[in-house]
Amino acid sequence: MIIHCLPNGTTIDENGLHETAWSFFQTRFYTYNHYAMLLVKLFLGIALALRYGGRIRLYGLSLFIVPLFMMLCSFAYFYAYTEIGGLTMDDINTLNSFLSIVNLILMPLPVVLLRLSMSTDS
After folding, report:
1. How distant, in Å, are the alpha carbons of 6, 19, 23, 101 from that of 26?
2. What is the residue range of 91's domain?
3. In angstroms, how far is CA 81 from the centroid of its own chain?
4. What angle do CA 117, 74, 36 make, to 5 degrees?
């Protein structure tokens, strides 16, 4: 006996929640897509850094290093928020603002290095 039907097709009955294939895809696509794009960037960056020389190597290294630094920034915020005692919310917000600025500086770095690697100017 169906007790409730959600808009995405998921049903709730006396045995619990039953997801449809579409709702399962909707709830997990963002996470899987995020991991897939991260792996593609990392492998492409390593391949460019190892295979080619010159300025394109810098672009490959930036594809590899920038996501790692961004993940370290996210982990630093997570660690400060969950594990460090005695921090006020003002301190945590200040750390979040600082790490957001660091991420904002890091984000265009691969694009800038790609532009420099494709330039014919010396």
Report:
1. 13, 10, 5, 31
2. 2-118
3. 19
4. 60
Are the C-beta atoms of residues 100 and 70 closer than 8 Å to each other? no
56 within 8 A of 64, measured Cβ to Cβ: no
Which uninterrupted H or E stretch holds 78? helix 55-82
Q: How far is CA 107 from the centre of its chain?
A: 11
Query: pLDDT per residue over 47-101, tens digit each?
Result: 888 888 788 888 888 888 888 898 899 999 999 888 888 888 899 899 999 999 9
Contacts of 86 (CB under 8 A, 6+ apart): none
Task: Find all residues with CB under 8 Å of 17, minimum gap 6, and list them.
Answer: 10, 11
Residues 45, 51: Cα–Cα separation, whole Å: 10
How many distinct structural domains can be found in the chain? 1
| Structure tokens that stand for 48 in this block | 């460019």
